[in-house]
Each structure stands twice: as structure tokens, then as C-alpha cells.
Write a structure and sequence with these properties.
Layout lengths: L1 H27 L5 E6 L11 E9 L2 E7 L3 E3 L29 E8 L9 E2 L7 E7 L2 E8 L1 H13 L2 E3 L3 E12 L13 H5 L5 H15 L4 H4 L8 E4 L16 H7 L24 H9 L7 H6 L28 E4 L2 E4 L4 E6 L2 H14 L6 E4 L13 E7 L4 H12 L3 E5 L3 H5 L12 E7 L2 E8 L36 E6 L2 E13 L5 E8 L5 E5 L14 H9 L1 H15 L15 E4 L2 H10 L3 E2 L2 E3 L4 E5 L12 E5 L9 H7 L9 E7 L15 E7 L16 E11 L10 H15 L9 E4 L3 E4 L3 E13 L2 E11 L9 H12 L8 H20 L3 H11 L6 E5 L5 E9 L5 E5 L4 E4 L4 E4 L4 E4 L3
Keywords: Ligase
Organism: Photinus pyralis
InterPro entries: aa-tRNA-synth_II/BPL/LPL (IPR045864), Biotin_CoA_COase_ligase (IPR004408), BPL_C (IPR003142), BPL_LPL_catalytic (IPR004143)
């Protein structure tokens, strides 16, 4: 009786759990997203870059979630199962499963190459649906047609515990997909005995035979088909059907429109593709105009209301097409633009580092960060592959350390002769530029004394590459060279030429050579200057290790002591070379010290957060990067550091006007609670935990700012920097399209400035996906976003930096206002620091509330109003370097860039993982 009751109880619980899971899947899955269930602590899919939409469950190492967009699988890359399953190595029983509508396609991935001893329950997948296709690559994959009931049962089994599918294949991954095309049919010749197909003996050798049999069948596909198995990494969606431009809309508002979207239509003329701006996608309605008017702040004047009137229905002039990738050489100077006679950097100038080892690269980066103006230059790794156009005209210097591959040497030489600047530290690139130099085995990696300018007899580590013949090594002897003459202390030292002729690209160039420094024993050049005549190309070749910190020689007491004594001279020499010969700004700006921060806002609201937020315990907000300590009136703060931030609750900062800020702030939540700090490593660190919707951090200066894809983020004083936390319900309009949040914030920034009376014509625009540009080609801001999902809410942390009152590294908003005053003879005041944050937060909350109220069209209209890419042509380059031109159509419902290829097909390109320079017409795989 007890066992019967227990069985009944277990059955009821099982039935209840299945019902809950089925309801969750039914309410979550739709035509846009996909269910993904993985074994492991993280969700990773290197071939298909997608966004996590909703976390459904997490049980030990089982993770279930929805992702967007849904993967579309081309079945032409797959094989049909044989009609007689005895010809298949895996045992599959004859099952006839009745399926209900709607049908769902399920992709299963199981472990193949990695042999694992069987310890899990085995289930036969054919009992859960109809077998559609299979393939065997690194893993074994199969596609089933199923329904919601069978999908729920299968996911429940996998969620509950580890399972093996047919033939003891350890299941790794379940995903719902869409399919297209038909699987290929092959001839199955060999029959497999039943005992062979049901279970192998538990030994790796038998497993290898099984996997070889399976892969041999799969290899029967033609070579042409096999070559198609990998998709370009930048492609999210690629369908063979042609869809007209007018149908590429981020959101379908009606069933009729949705049906029309999927109709097959005639292809448009590829050479006459025209994409207009807002109105071809979403005409602004009178109803939406009324909504916008209702959101105007109470202090807005009648004139400001007039500023928000929509633009004319049709633009009179189509924006110019973006330049295609040019084959001609471009000047290596930082790209500049001229505004009212003032020359402005278009982008922060880059310093690229190429090294033959990770240690050498880190050494170079560390010393550059010490010497260069840290508010002006962006230091990146050199992109060893990809188009040269991505870096050629935005690079101020390339630092080369160590051996260089021949194809890279060609790029460096091209950069040099077209006006670029090189700093080569103990590199064999010396011989590509100055072929008269030969390798000698003199003082290889030894401590030597050398002199340069006012620095005499400095002890440094000298490299193997020397301009010196070796009396001990005949293969390096110059005795037979009649051009040599005795010069210096060495009887065989060759004569130093003042100029060398080189050839590149079918042209001849004269390189003028000058010895800047030499070591004292052999008088071999330690520092060389090579200048390309009639161009601005300059290269410095150092045969001493100026990049190495003395601490790397701590195990060698004699070398460490000598190098440590010369360390100041090393840094001074390197600074002199960079500033005097390579024209870089070495006025290093010293960051101000850390100090206590301030908690701003209404007292009751502050106390509510401090007492009710789960992330704050005993007045401390702690994560693995920083501890934030909230302090009352009588509490004395400890000294602030990079990892400890005392925050004063009852005090106000002296250099941030809280009166001006809160008078201009008209929001309900966004920006109402603020931590204001003079200096932080990164404002994003303070939002690592779930706090409150609208919680904000404003920081005057950051020491370790990070941008998208972990790129360096320059944070000079005068840059308006903030981090904002938004809590977005997963079932809301934005919750179903989380990537659009970044577009919403950037739209709000532009709209906030342009809605100020008199500031409508300040030329600001948006570069996809999240950069702010002035005059169409000057970058003055950007943002990064990180998202965490907590059950039914997504916590979105937005980090943003806008050049407000700083001319470095490019220009700033207030400089644009000043130039506009000069041009139009107006007297518009600059935007105050505190007001700038307030009007942006006002706009963010206003647009956010409208969108969450269901008016997603408003966001797209504003985005297209301000973006820079209508009618643009870009070159899409896949990871194999195959390039094709495409026309920009718009953005899809997830914020990804929608382009039409020349064959008429549409594809979406996502922002993360790509180096994207749309203003130059380039999209290529991420290299920096």
C-alpha cells in the first residue's frame, strides 16, 4: 500500500512537472526564438552568434533558455536515414509516433569522437518524433520532427539527469530550429548485425571503429557539398528567397502584414536598389505625434515643442553612398575632417602592436601606456589578417617586436612608403627595409653600453641583429665586400651608407639612413633612423630592448642591477624617440587620486535601497572587483583605492552641482539614485549586482575604461561618462528584443541634445551599432552593454561615454556648439555637465516608457532619423576573406544590421564579434 501511494505521488509530481514545463515552453517559444538546452555551466555556440533571451531553468550542469534569432538549417548539408535501418551503424527501432500540430523541428547533438564510459539511462530518440536527417562531424547530430508534448518529455528527461541516446551516445545539446531544403540521399551498402548496432563493448578501440563507420557514410557526400558545411561567422540569417526592401521591417504589426512578409515576390533590379529613410519603413502617425507631445517635460517651452515636429515625409536629397574599399594607398595619418576651417581627428588615433610572442606584446603595451598621452591614443594588437583598409588611415604608429612573417612585412613596408611611422624593437623587419644590414653573432643577448643624444653609456640588453661583420664567423664576414672600408674600432666594420634605394609595388624609393646611437665596443648601430624621401614615412630601428622591464631579469642579479640603474634612462630614451622622431604626443596625463564618492537622491529612496536591496549587506556592496561601502554621518571613511570605494550618504560633492542636476531631471526612476565619483577604475563595476531600475553611476574620470569587445575606452577629463542599470521584464516589448536597448539609449542621447532650443542643427548621427558621430565621420562617443537574466527580468547594464567638453581624442559636443556659433553668428551656451546627464536621462525614460507601452515603431523611427547608413553600400567579408558588396536595408527586430547581397538574398550581421567600419563600407571578422 505504501509503495502504491508513493508511486501515485511520484506520478502526480511527474505529471505536474511536465505540465509546468509544457506551459512554460508554450508561453515562451515563438517564430523568432529557439529553445536551447545544454549540458555545461555556460551556453556557448561559436558557429552561431546569438543572444540569450530568457533563462528557463538551471539545474546543476543543465541550462535551458531561449535564444534569438532561431537557427535555420539547410538540409542539403545533411543525409537521409536509410529506409532499411539495418544499414545504419546506430540501432534505431521501428517507431511510428503520432504528432500533433504545430510541428516542431528539434536538433540533437551528441558526443562522438570523445569516448565516454556509459553510465546514463538510454532513451531511443525515434520514440519522440520522426527522423528527418543526420550528419557526423565533430559530434553526431540528428534532426527530428516532433510536437510540443514530445519536446516537453524529451527536455524533461535531459533536464532531470544525464541521458544517452541510441548507441550510448552522450547527449550534449537540444535546440529547436527551422529547416529549409532537402537532405541528400546516399547508397547504404553494408548491413550491421543487431548486436553490433545495439551496444559496443566498453573499449575505446571499438568506439573508434564505430565512429569511423559513421563518418565514412557521411563522407559519401560530394566534395562540393562538404565545402559548404561552414557558414561565414558574421552571418546570422541567409535565405535563398528574395524579399523586397519594403518588407524588411523590424516588427510586424498585423497578421495580414505577417502573411505578406512571407510571400514570394519577383526580384528587384540589383543595380537600382534604393533605400530611403524613415518613411519607407514606418510613417509616423498622428497618434504617435500625440504621444510624443505628452512626454514633453513641464519646463519645455512652446518653441521646444515645435522642435519635435517630424521631418518632411521624403528627403529631398539621398545620402551619398559610402566609399567602397579602395585599392590605392591611403595616407597613414589619423583621418581628419575640416569643420569651419578647424582640423579635427575623425577617430581616436591608433597605435598598433605586432609581436612574435605574448610576452613581447605585453612588454610593449605596458611601456606604451606608461609613456604615451593616455587620453589620446588607442593601443591595439595589430590585425594580422583582414583588410589593410581597416587600420591604414587611422594609425599613428605601428610598433614591431621580433620576427615578422613575409606577408606582414609587405604590409608594413607599404604602410611606411605611404607615409606611416614604424618603431621596430629588435626586429628582422630591419632587413626588409635596409637590406644592406646583415646578421652577425656579436654580443647576442648580452648587456652592452650604448649612447644616444644626452644619454651616455647606458647599459641595455642588445639583440642578435647587428650591423656588424663577425671576425669569428666566416659566414658573416664582409672581407670580400669591396664596398667596405675600415671605420670605427672594428677592422672589418662596413661603411655606413647615408641612403639606400628600395623597391615596392613597382616603384623605387630612397630611404635616408642616420645612426642615432651606437654601442661602445664595436660601434655597431643600436638606434637607426630611416626616413623615406619625399614622403612622411619614418622608421626607428632599435637593436636594444627598450621594451623590457628590468624585473624580467630578477633571476640574474648582475643584469637586473645594471638594467634597474638604467631604467629611467630607458624610459626617457623611448619617450624622446616617440616624441621627437615619430611625432607622438608623450605628455602623459597623470590620473588624479582615488577619493570618496557621494550617494545622491531623495533620502527615503536611498534608505529604501540600502535596507531592501539583497546585494547590499551591512552597508556594503561587494563583488570580485570592488567593495562599495556606504557611510553615514558619523562614520569616518577609509582611504579610497582601486578596489575600495567609500560612499558618503549625507554629503554633496563640491564639483558637481546637485541643484542644477535635479532641477533639470524630470524622470521618475532613471537617474534618481546616483553614485557620483571623481575617479573609478570603471563605473560598470559598481553595477555588477542587481540593484534598482534606473540606478546610475556618474564618474568624472576612469582609469581602466573598457568598450565593446573589451577594447580600450579612452576616458579623458571632460568626457561625460555614466553607467545605468535598467530592469527589463522579459515578457515586455523590449524584453523580447533585448539587443534594441543599446539603440534606444543612443537614440535618446542624440534626441536630448537636438531637442534643446537652437541646437536642432548640431550635426550628430548614429553609426551602427552603438557609436555617436559628429559631422558624419567624427567619433565622439559610444556605449557598451552587459545583460544578466534573473527569472522574469533582464538586468541591463549600460556604460556610456560622450565627449562633452574635451577636444581629445577627437572633438566634443561643446566644441561643435562653439563652431556652430561662429558659422551662424549665434550665442548658444555650451551644455553644462550636470544638465547633460539630466536631459539624457529624461529622454531615455521617455522613450523607454513609450516603447514598453507597445510603441516599438517609435524607436525605429527615431533610430532611422539619426542613423548614418541609409542607402549605403558595404563590403561584407567572411572569415575566409571572400568579399561581396551589399546594400544596407535597415536593422531587424533584434537590432542586427540587415543587408541585401548582390544575389538578392538578405542577411543579418550582428555587432558583437565583428570589426565593423561601415563609414568606410567594410564589415569583416573581428581582429582587434
Amino acid at each position: 500500500m505504501i509503495f502504491t501511494l508513493y508511486y501515485m505521488y511520484s506520478t502526480i509530481i511527474q505529471w505536474w512537472r511536465l505540465g509546468c514545463l509544457r506551459n512554460k515552453l508554450s508561453g515562451t517559444l515563438n517564430s523568432h526564438n529557439a529553445l536551447m538546452v545544454c549540458a555545461g555551466s555556460t551556453i556557448s555556440d561559436s558557429k552561431h552568434k546569438r543572444c540569450l533571451e530568457n533563462l528557463l531553468f538551471h539545474n546543476e550542469d543543465r541550462i535551458g533558455c531561449t535564444v534569438v534569432p532561431k537557427q535555420r538549417v539547410d538540409l542539403s548539408q545533411w543525409l537521409l536515414f536509410p529506409k532499411d535501418l539495418n544499414y545504419f551503424p546506430i540501432f534505431i527501432s521501428d517507431a511510428n509516433v503520432a504528432l500533433r500540430s504545430p510541428k516542431i523541428y528539434m536538433l540533437l547533438r551528441a558526443r562522438l569522437d570523445d569516448y565516454r564510459r556509459h553510465e546514463s539511462e538510454i532513451i531511443q530518440v525515434e520514440n519522440f518524433g520522426e527522423l528527418i536527417a543526420w550528419r557526423a562531424q565533430e559530434n553526431f547530430e540528428m534532426i527530428l520532427k516532433t510536437d510540443l508534448n514530445n519536446l516537453t518529455k524529451f527536455v524533461h528527461c535531459f533536464f532531470d539527469h544525464s541521458i544517452d541516446i541510441n548507441h550510448e551516445l552522450n547527449l550534449l545539446h537540444i535546440e529547436t530550429i527551422d529547416i529549409e531544403g532537402n537532405p541528400s540521399r546516399i547508397k547504404y551498402n553494408l548491413r550491421y548485425p543487431l548486436e553490433y548496432r545495439i551496444k559496443y563493448s566498453l573499449a575505446p578501440v571499438h568506439w573508434r571503429k564505430f565512429t569511423n563507420d559513421l563518418k565514412s557514410l557521411y563522407l559519401k557526400l560530394s566534395d562540393n557539398l562538404c565545402n559548404k558545411l561552414e557558414h561565414p561567422t558574421i552571418t546570422i540569417e541567409s535565405t535563398p528567397k528574395t524579399v523586397p526592401v519594403s518588407e524588411v521591417k523590424p516588427i510586424k504589426k498585423s497578421l495580414e502584414a505577417t502573411k505578406h512578409h512571407h510571400k514570394t515576390v519577383r526580384k528587384e533590379s540589383k543595380n537600382k536598389l534604393e533605400v530611403s529613410t524613415i518613411d519607407s519603413r514606418r510613417p509616423k502617425s498622428n497618434e504617435r505625434k500625440a504621444k510624443l507631445e505628452k512626454t514633453k517635460h513641464k519646463t519645455a517651452s512652446v518653441k521646444r515643442n515645435e522642435e519635435t515636429e517630424p521631418p518632411p515625409a521624403v528627403r529631398k536629397q539621398k545620402p551619398p553612398k559610402l566609399a567602397k574599399c579602395a585599392n590605392s594607398l591611403i595616407s597613414s595619418k589619423t583621418p581628419v575632417t575640416e569643420t569651419n576651417g578647424v582640423t579635427i581627428n575623425s577617430k581616436p588615433p591608433n597605435v598598433l602592436v605586432y609581436a612574435d610572442s605574448v610576452v613581447a606584446r605585453d612588454n610593449v603595451k605596458n611601456v606604451l601606456h606608461t609613456i604615451l598621452n593616455n587620453h589620446k591614443y588607442m593601443v591595439y594588437d595589430f590585425p594580422v589578417s583582414g583588410s589593410q583598409q581597416l587600420w591604414l588611415n587611422s594609425t599613428s604608429l605601428i610598433v614591431v617586436c621580433g620576427n615578422v612573417a613575409p606577408e606582414i612585412s609587405t604590409q608594413f613596408l607599404e604602410y611606411l612608403v605611404s607615409g606611416g611611422k614604424l618603431l621596430c624593437l629588435c626586429s628582422d623587419l630591419l632587413y626588409s627595409v635596409l637590406h644592406i644590414f646583415s646578421t652577425a653573432e656579436v654580443r647576442e643577448h648580452e648587456l652592452v653600453r650604448f649612447s644616444y643624444e644626452n644619454w651616455k653609456r647606458v647599459k641595455m640588453m642588445h639583440h642578435v641583429f647587428c650591423y656588424q661583420a663577425s671576425p669569428a664567423k666566416r659566414q658573416f664576414s664582409k672581407d670580400s665586400d669591396q664596398s667596405n672600408s675600415s671605420r670605427g674600432s672594428s677592422p672589418v666594420a662596413p661603411r655606413m651608407p647615408s641612403a639606400v634605394e628600395i623597391q615596392h609595388g613597382g616603384k623605387k624609393y630612397v630611404v635616408q639612413v642616420q645612426v642615432l646611437g651606437a654601442e661602445e665596443t664595436w660601434h655597431t648601430p643600436s638606434l637607426l633612423l630611416a626616413a623615406v624621401k619625399d614622403t612622411k614615412g619614418v622608421a626607428i630601428f632599435s637593436q636594444v630592448h627598450l621594451e623590457i622591464d628590468p624585473t624580467q631579469y630578477q633571476d640574474d642579479e648582475s643584469k637586473f642591477s645594471a638594467l634597474n640603474d638604467s631604467n629611467t634612462a630607458r624610459l626617457e630614451i623611448l619617450r624622446h624617440l616617440l616624441s621627437q622622431h615619430l611625432s607622438l604626443d608623450c605628455n602623459s596625463i597623470v590620473d588624479i587620486g582615488y577619493s570618496p564618492a557621494y550617494f545622491l537622491g531623495i533620502h527615503d529612496v536611498k534608505q529604501e535601497l540600502l535596507t531592501q536591496c539583497d546585494a547590499i549587506k551591512d552597508g556594503r556592496l561587494v563583488n570580485d572587483k570592488i567593495t562599495v561601502h556606504f557611510l553615514g554621518k558619523e562614520m569616518e571613511p577609509e582611504p579610497a583605492t582601486a578596489t575600495y570605494l567609500p560612499v558618503l550618504i549625507h554629503a554633496c560633492p563640491s564639483n558637481f552641482s546637485t541643484v542644477q542636476y535635479f532641477e533639470a531631471l524630470k524622470t521618475t526612476e532613471v537617474g534618481r539614485l546616483v553614485i557620483y565619483a571623481e575617479v573609478l577604475t570603471s563605473s560598470q563595476l559598481l553595477l555588477a549586482r542587481k540593484l534598482r531600475h534606473g540606478f546610475t553611476v556618474i564618474v568624472k574620470q576612469q582609469t581602466q575604461g573598457v568598450g565593446r569587445s573589451n577594447n580600450q575606452w579612452l576616458c579623458p577629463v571632460g568626457c561625460a561618462m555614466f553607467s545605468l542599470q535598467l530592469h527589463v521584464p522579459m515578457q515586455s516589448t523590449l524584453g523580447r528584443s533585448l539587443p534594441l536597448v543599446q539603440h534606444l539609449v543612443m537614440v535618446a542621447i542624440v534626441a536630448a541634445i537636438k531637442r534643446k532650443a537652437g541646437y536642432e542643427d548640431i550635426d550628430l548621427g548614429l553609426k551602427w551599432p552603438n557609436d555617436l558621430y559628429a559631422n558624419r565621420n567624427i567619433k565622439i562617443g559610444g556605449l557598451m552593454i552587459s545583460t544578466s537574466v534573473f527569472s522574469d527580468v533582464a538586468v541591463v547594464n549600460i556604460g556610456c561615454g560622450i565627449n562633452l567638453d574635451n577636444l581629445l581624442p577627437t572633438t566634443c559636443v561643446n566644441e561643435l556648439i562653439r563652431l556652430s556659433n561662429v558659422e551662424k553668428k549665434t550665442e548658444l551656451p555650451p551644455i553644462a555637465y550636470e544638465e547633460f546627464f539630466a536631459i539624457i536621462f529624461n529622454e531615455i525614460e521617455s522613450v523607454y516608457n513609450l516603447v514598453q507601452g507597445g510603441d516599438l515603431d517609435l524607436l525605429f523611427e527615431l533610430y532611422y532619423k539619426y542613423w548614418l547608413h541609409s542607402g549605403s553600400e558595404v563590403m561584407v567579408t567572411d572569415k575566409d576573406g571572400v568579399a561581396s558588396m551589399a546594400s544596407v536595408i535597415g536593422i531587424d527586430e533584434f537590432g542586427f544590421l540587415k543587408v541585401r547581397l548582390k544575389d538578392g538574398s538578405l542577411t543579418s550581421v550582428q555587432p558583437d564579434g565583428n570589426s565593423f567600419d561601415i563609414l568606410k563600407g567594410l564589415i569583416v571578422p573581428k581582429r582587434f
